[in-house]
Design goal:
The chain is α/β, with parallel strands linked by helices and 372 residues long. It has a single domain, classed as Rossmann fold, CATH 3.40.50.1110. Helix content is 41%, strand content 14%. It contains 13 helices and 9 strands. The protein has a 5-stranded parallel β-sheet with strand order 4-3-5-8-9, with helices on both faces. It is globular.
Length: 372
Amino acid sequence: MTSRERFFAAIAVLLSILASLTGVEIVMRFLPVHTGFRVSPVTVQAPVAHLRPNEPYTFSTGWNFKNVNRGRINNAGFVNDQDYRRQDSKPLLAVVGDSFIEARMIPYRETLQGRLAEALENDFRVYSFAAGGAPMSQYLIWARHAVQDYGARALIVNIVLNDFDESYVAYRTSPVYWVYAADADGQLRLRFFEYRQSTPRSILSRSALARYLMINLKLEHFIQTLPLRHTPPPAPVSAAGGQTGAGNPEDAEGRRMRISLAVIDAFFRDLEAMLELPPDRILFLMDGFHYPEAAARNAGTYVDRMRKAFLAKAAGLGYGTIDLDPQFFARYRETGETFEVPDDWHWNATGHQIAADAVLSSGFLERLRRAP
């Protein structure tokens, strides 16, 4: 075969591959491929993270498109069927959290905030400020945004099990959100990082085939967990503040515990400083293990101790708290139901119902109604 023939043969192969990929892309556009979420740039001029406003989305999991749900990102850049208004005669109750509150995997009307919005429509507006991957440190930014920019009169903040350590810069899992880092004096302070979605990622997000590979088939997660991509964990710190042997897992766990406790202290310090709301206008929901057997297995673990530490700190400062585990346990003993979306760890509609019922029966809303 001559060089000319080899050249045209290569061109023919490339055109054949391109035609095949184009055909697959066309087919994928008719299937419920996860659309992913495009984050608006986070800058000094626009420091509040949110999604690109006014876009529909499709959620699905796995190669065979399970758990399909469709919804919308509203005018403020949050997953919510309502468009947000900055001025309204009804007082605003803001619900803040991460992917559990964002809840892209179930219909809005079945979410905690959707149920509260329906139940309280005569008395309050209920808006949600949440996005996947956000840690507890980011909740402060959204809470301030809700109070200062939308006039929120009260807050419901949902805390989940990975909020404590992921609020610290060394353990963060997303480049988008505010996190805590130590300043020159060793005090934890909120730190802001600018974020702009890369051009290649933005282009790929428009391809249904690319999203299917990266999100539905979890290729992106696989790439991120490759050993070559792992960064060494931060060196453990002794009780006296010095570093110890990095190979001792107990030292690493101890450092994680100390940092997480420091994050809790910094969180409540900043909550008081950043928000002009009294403690009785803020209610914390604490997610947990959902099932009695799981709670028994995890008794005394890092997560168990962090949950208890946060609840004790919040209650001691006068904030409202609801530990959701007793609510989940009671429902499980009664019905044997599960509370997570299949092949997912987020609340399903029943989990959201339990959280909403806990709020509605807590007395928190009656106190808000009586407040001036």
